[in-house]
Amino acid sequence: MAPDRVVSHSDPDMRHGRKSASRRFDGHKMDVVTDEESELVLGVEVRAANAPDGEGAAPLLGQAMALPGIVIATLLGDMAYSDGDVRETVEEAGAEMVAKVPPTTNGGRLPKTDFEVDTEAGTVTCPAGGTTTNARKAKDHKGRPGLLYVFPAEACAACPLREQCTTSERGRTVFVGRHHDRIAAARAAQDEPGTKALLRRRSKVERKIDHLQDLGMRKARYRGRRRTRLQALLAATVANFKRLGVLGAFDATAAPALAA
Q1: How many whole angstroms separate alpha carbon 221 and alpha carbon 255?
Q2: Where does residue 54 rank: exposed (0-12), middle (13-18), buried (19+ CB within 10 A)?
Q3: Boundary (domain end) residue, out of 179, 210, 225
């Protein structure tokens, strides 16, 4: 299937999108950012259905922080927002990205996370204690530059962990990308009680997305991404008015700060 295939003659902006490997949809993708405490929607955006989720984080963050009096220090997201590029752009926008890092797998063999990587010293140490400094320039699956560390073939051949580590006769290799330290720090942080508690609070935005779907955002009512964005803004406005009612903002006896 063509990656940017036009799926509708009546709406050329529509694209194929995926919720998972087995669940596909046609249309657009909506990004939402909400305030955890008040549960008010601070920003919405509509992008192509085939666009990566994480790429919408920094622009939407900037949209929200452009509002008077809005300062966002921490942005919570799911694993789709854990990519190093996403974390970097969010940090550049002035916030910390908190999202669970996906587990690393290696076909049942020892994953890269079992190796000790020291980017400052330029070394990689394997679980058996062997260390290599032999590295060459390489690129990851997204074309981003990094270093491919190679362990000596003779050392791997004599290693007691060989069968658990690699089948290559040339020795085990470990790719270290430009975001290695950033991702490693995030992976370590997610095991801390404070970060675990923070990640659990992300459920509030899931409820808000459900609310927006109840207000019509399950289906685009207009043709074109620009008009669908207007639909999202209207739905978010209605959701905010309903939430303000719950908070008592329209109550004559409400506190002045809340009424404002």
Answers
A1: 38
A2: buried
A3: 179
Burial class (CB in 10 A: 0-12, 13-18, 19+), 64: buried
Identify the DSSP state of 236.
H
Q: pLDDT tens, 101-123?
A: 999 999 999 999 999 999 999 99
Q: Give the C-alpha separation, 59 to 250, whole Å.
A: 32
Structural domain count, the chain: 2
Q: Is residue 249 in some structural domain?
A: yes
Is 123 found in the same domain as 72? no
Q: Strand 96-99 vs strand 173-177: parallel, antiparallel, or unpaired?
A: unpaired
Instruction: Clarify whether residues 64 and 93 are in a common domain.
Output: yes
Q: Are residues 94 and 195 in the same domain?
A: yes
Q: Which amino acid is at 13?
A: D
pTM of the model: 0.85
Angle (CA) 53-59-61 rounded to 5° is 95
Q: Is residue 4 part of a domain?
A: no
pLDDT tens digit sequence for 69-81: 999 999 999 999 9
6 Cβ contact partners less than 8 Å away, ≥ 6 residues apart? 12, 14, 15
What CA–CA distances, in Å, run from 147 to 132, 171, 180? 12, 16, 11
